[in-house]
Amino acid sequence: MDAKDVMKKPMPTIDDIREALESILLFIGEDPSRDGLLETPDRIIKSWGELYSGYKQSPEEILSKCFDEIDGYDQMVILKNIGFFSMCEHHNLSFIGVAHVGYLLENKVVGISKLARLVDCHARRMQIQERMTKCIADDIMRYLKPKGAAVVVEGQHLCMQARGIKKIGSSMITSAMEGVFKNNEGGSKDEFLTLVSMSSTY
């Protein structure tokens, strides 16, 4: 069955999902009828509304509100240490971490909260960290039209720590550099990496 066939399948109902989750509980050796698990399928379904809320968000809408009055500011804008929570598409296990997002503006800026919202938009989906990192940078380039965008993401993956290789404390770092950052034009990439690595004084 290819992707087109999957998309043709009817959307499952809440009852379908609840029944599937009860089957999963049976499969792992549990009893879905015991007191502690009676409402677990409904709790899981409710949690998905938060964990996968990124599918219902639009990066274009998030970045649509910009400001042109920048009083001649033409340097880098960086938002550091944006905490995120995401789900690995390979094992359906979580990975959490921080993202550092920057751009070199052309003639407009976006509210800094929108950069955090953009990270959440992409984080709250099933995916791999590499794709998440690239999509954040691509959307900044697409909708803000800056001279460049830079994104560094550091995540700890439960699929690496709770199963498989079982390496507690391991972290993965990914980066996406676009525009002037890609070729380190004017030392922009070096400046970005230096600034995001600096310890906060607050």
Q: Can you offer a commentary on this structure?
A:
Helix content is 39%, strand content 24%. With 202 residues, the chain is of the alpha+beta class. The chain has a five-stranded mixed beta sheet, sandwiched between helices. β2 and β3 form a beta hairpin. The mean pLDDT is 93.
Question: Termini, distance in Å?
Answer: 54 Å
Main β sheet profile? 5 strands, mixed
- Gyration radius from CA atoms, angstroms: 20 Å
Strand order of the largest sheet: 5-2-3-6-7
Q: Catalogue the unreliable spans.
A: none
Shape: elongated
The number of helical segments is 8
List keywords for this structure.
202 residues; alpha+beta; five-stranded mixed β-sheet; 8 helices; elongated
Write a brief caption for the model.
The chain is an alpha+beta fold and 202 residues long. The protein contains 8 helices and 7 strands; from the N terminus they run ααααββββαβαβαβα. A 5-stranded mixed sheet has the order 5-2-3-6-7, sandwiched between helices. Strands 1-4 form a two-stranded antiparallel sheet.
Tell me the layout of helices and strands.
Layout: H1 3-8, H2 14-27, H3 40-51, H4 59-62, E1 66-67, E2 76-88, E3 94-104, E4 109-110, H5 112-123, E5 126-127, H6 129-144, E6 148-157, H7 158-161, E7 172-179, H8 188-197
Parallel strand pairs: 2-5
Antiparallel strand pairs: 1-4, 2-3, 3-6, 6-7
